[in-house]
Amino acid sequence: MIKNNQFKKGHIPWNKNQIIKTCLNCENKFGISKSRNLQKRGKYCSINCKKNYKYKLAKKFKINEDLAELIGIIVGDGCINKNYKRKDYRIQISGNQIEDKDYYDKYLPELIKKTLNINCKPYIGSNKAYIIQFQSEPFRIFLHNLGIKSPKAKTSNIPKIIKKNPLHLKSFIRGLADADFTLIFTKRKKGGPNYYPRIASQFASEILVKDLEKSLRDLGFTLNTKYNYKRKDKRGFTTITNFINLDGPINLNKWLKEIGFSNNRITTRYLVWKKIGYLKPKSTLQERKKIING
Ligand SMILES: [Zn+2]
After folding, report:
1. Cα(272)–Cα(285) distance, rounded to whole angstroms?
2. In the chain, what are the domains?
3. Rounded to the nearest whole angstrom, what is the distance from the C-alpha of residue 39 to the centroid of ligand 1?
4. 258/139 Cα distance (integer angstroms)
5. Which residue from 217, 210, 214, 178 is spatially nearest to 76, judged by alpha carbons?
6. Residue range 41-74, pLDDT digits in tens
7. DSSP E strands, 150-232
8. In the structure, what pLDDT confidence band is assigned to residue 16 with cuts at 50, 70 and 90?
9. Ion ligand 1 nearby residues (CB, 5 A)
10. The pLDDT of residue 41
């Protein structure tokens, strides 16, 4: 109970046309007129409470497996854009409009609905990427508190709170892998078939690869990394990248059992290999589906 609340602004206890409400943010009681209540106004006792409510909601997020997976996807393929005109932030996740289509059409919207109760649909952006975009200030602040903010490329890592719980860590890695890893099959001798599995990725962030290396080794995987690898891209710019590879069928089977993939871009690669014993480089999703269903 708050004493003296009858002296609060807007609170006139002897007015019969007043309705007593509880502020969503500070949970203090305050009075508003019936007409304001009908307009669905008067959720907060003050402008400050209205401003601060998102910080209260941000603290209510609890990491579970679904949320850890979504965070992994955002660390992989997400970015947080500030719209300076509207003074708000958009969380954008973008992939390839062909290879990631199934994942963005169904799996990802369902995961966002489950975790944030937000409905969203993918669209093709001006850069031809396949994009899912949504807005949630509480979630954006929650991510910020975990250290996930834009621009993130070189500094992203696995949030500490996720590393603490192996189930959450595995879900995070699945989300990150669905966004940024691939499954390829290499030749073991010249002219031979592409049959030897490799789960692989590369990141601009050295810290992220170091985190992944430690986490995956702790989970019992064997792997190779290469840090600060300089290479020239098509336009002649030098970029620095960090590689992580998990080679061989033992790693693959362990990954499928303990972490898994949810993106058809990757699962179709596995299913082709399982069916015919190899997978040629540069296959398309359509080609792989044909082999699997044929
Ligand atoms: Zn309040």
Report:
1. 11
2. 5-56 (no CATH), 65-293 (3.10.28.10)
3. 19
4. 28
5. 178
6. 889 999 999 999 999 999 999 999 999 999 999 9
7. 182-186, 196-203, 224-232
8. low
9. 23, 25-26, 45, 49
10. 82
Nearest by Cα to 262 from 61, 76, 63: 76
Q: What size, in residues, is the chain?
A: 294
**Structural contact between residues 172 and 215, judged by C-beta atoms closer than 8 angstroms:** no
Distance 57 CA to ligand 1 centre (A): 14
Threshold 0.85, pTM exceeds: yes
For 173-204, b/e burial (b = at least 16 CB within 10 A) is bbbbbbbbbebbbeeeeeeeebebbbbbbbbe
d(CA 155, CA 208): 7
Rounded CA-CA distance 63/170 in Å is: 13
Which tokens belong to 146?
């975990």
Q: How far is residue 5's CA from residue 289's CA, in Å, rounded to a whole number? A: 67
